[in-house]
Amino acid sequence: MEPIRKESLADAVSDRVLALIREGKYRAGDRLPTERELAGQLGVGRTSVREGLRYLEKLGVLDIHQGRGMMVRSLSLEDVFLNSLPVSAIVELPEKQIRDIMHARRVLELESARLAASERTAEDLARMADLVEAQKRNLERPEEWLALDGLFHVAVARASDNEALVQLIRLLWDMLFKHSEAILRNEIIVTSSTSYHEQIYHAIEAGDDERARERMLAHLEDSQKLVLAGLFSSNHAQAPGEPPPDATADG
After folding, report:
1. How far apart (Å, rounded) are the C-alpha atoms in residues 100 and 80?
2. In degrees to the nearest 10, what's the CA dihedral of 150, 156, 159, 162?
3. For domain 81-235, which architecture applies?
4. pLDDT over 90 for what percent of the chain?
5. Are 98 and 176 in contact (CB under 8 A)?
6. Which of 62, 94, 157, 191 has the most CB atoms lying inside 10 A of its own CB?
7. Using the 8-state DSSP alphabet, how is residue 181 labeled?
């Protein structure tokens, strides 16, 4: 592991430009001063300015084009979430927070399924149908199946035509992905979830928003019960004769 170094001038430049954007000095579509002008205003060399601005370009904050200058980008919701921390790789959640995330998923995904039944396109339907068939083919390959599981829920959200739902549902699913061992150990989850996905797809295809919502609710409630039971069994050694914990409680 490399030792921590003091903040570089390039870091200071990027931090200052970001602060100016947050303060409203520069807004989406505005052109920034030239490198030479920024160097003079900030009291640093042009090399530091160039490095700091290139970092903001990589983050998607700036558009930099030779001969056209530097402009503040208008970020989409997808841009915002893509530049966040890779939570699936680092998050370690206690059981209470796992329940909380599952509850939040229900709140979001019931509306996602309901909207999808009225907003879906032919392309959305084809995508969901392909994912359901792929899951059927991968029932005995749980790692592949699990990746398809997340893609199906995101596909339903995309069919809702609400980008905020897409990104939030993707984020919550990613947060639970690290705890997928409980899913992969349980064959019932794999088969029952695939069946629920097919039912959800058919309800969306038929434009039946209430049926789509009801099937999504049944799916998520059933999955929560099985996943939490798996987590409890792996994290707590149950004493002989001790009743199992209430895995359906939201905490």
Report:
1. 23
2. -80
3. Up-down Bundle (1.20)
4. 44
5. yes
6. 157
7. H
Closest CA to 158 of 113, 91, 97, 207: 113
How confident is the model over 186-226, as pLDDT tens digits? Answer: 778 899 999 999 999 999 999 999 999 999 999 999 988 88
CA dist 201 to 29, 111, 128, 139, 159, Å? Answer: 40, 15, 7, 18, 11
- Classified as helix, coil or strand, 8 is coil
Cα 34-40-46 angle, rounded to 5 deg: 65
The tally of CA atoms less than 13 A away on the side-chain side of residue 2 is 3
Q: pTM for the complete prediction? A: 0.64
Positive/negative CA dihedral, 50, 54, 55, 57:
positive
For the chain, what are the domain ranges? 9-75, 81-235
Topology of the domain covering 9-75: Arc Repressor Mutant, subunit A (1.10.10)
Q: How confident is the model at residue 239 (pLDDT cuts 50, 70, 90)?
A: very low
CB of 127 closer than 8 Å to CB of 155: yes
Residue type, 70: M
Q: How far is it, in rounded angstroms, from Cα 130 to Cα 152?
A: 9
